[in-house]
Amino acid sequence: MNVFPTLTTRRLRLRELLPTDAPALFAIHGDGANMRWFGADPMTDLTQAHALIDTFAQWRKQPNPGTRWALEQDGQLIGSCGLFKWNRGWNSCALSCELAAQARGQGLMSEALQAMLTWGFAHMQLHRVEAMVHPHNAASQALLERLGFKAEGTLREAGFWNGQRHDLVVLGLLAREWLDT
Q1: What is the DSSP string of the chain?
Q2: CA-based Rg of the chain, rounded to a whole angstrom?
Q3: Is the per-residue pLDDT at 64 higher than 80?
Q4: What is the pLDDT of residue 181?
Q5: Rounded CA gap, 60 and 62, in Å?
Q6: Domain CATH code at residue 60
């Protein structure tokens, strides 16, 4: 994974996050209402956005690497999505994503995740992708289920953000299920 895999869809370009994306990323991650289910406290400073971009860049160099794509529509960053915690021995990884509030309800994340998952199953030779979602995040659960993910159970108090412990629903997608869609 030396060259960053840029992907394109009908309306989006999935590309590497760049330092110039920090203000837009901060606007997304700094919005407490927008990020209430994300699994991290809202950002309070632009330097946190720069640090997050650096973290995502480092993912590709870790023993269990990951890839985080910027979601660009008409030249504007509207969110990101990624595959991380890649266990090569098990051919599995986790999925994470977020979208700016103004970009929701248009099918953009579905479009992005379809491209990302197709790439992941083909190029990472994945057998399984899993996602952890807050039980009250009905929109994300519905999106993942439309993509073929199956709810597998609840991890009790597995998350901690905004000073509180949160249960997380685990959803999984197997390669054979993706190929059947």
Answers
A1: --S---EE-SS-EEEE--GGGHHHHHHHHT-TTTTTTTSSPPP-SHHHHHHHHHHHHHHTTSSS--EEEEEEETTEEEEEEEEEEEETTTTEEEEEEEE-GGGTTSSHHHHHHHHHHHHHHHHS--SEEEEEE-TT-HHHHHHHHHTT-EEEEEEEEEEEETTEEEEEEEEEEEHHHHHH-
A2: 15
A3: no
A4: 62
A5: 6
A6: 3.40.630.30
CA distance 133 to 137: 7
Domain boundaries, position 54? 7-127
Assess if residue 32 is contained within a domain: yes
**CB contact at 8 A, 88 and 77:** no
User: Tokens in use for 109?
Assistant: 């994340």
In whole angstroms, what is the distance from residue 53 CA to residue 142 CA?
Answer: 28
Q: Is residue 53 part of a domain?
A: yes
The reply to whether the predicted model has a pTM over 0.90 is yes
Residue 117 lies in a domain: yes
Query: Residue 168's closest CA among 154, 180, 178, 179?
Result: 154
Contact 29, 35 (CB under 8 A): yes
Domain count, the chain: 1
Question: Residue 142 domain-assigned?
Answer: no
What confidence tens digit (pLDDT) does each residue in 67-124 have? 999 999 999 999 999 999 999 999 999 999 999 999 999 999 999 999 999 999 999 9
pLDDT at residue number 146: 96
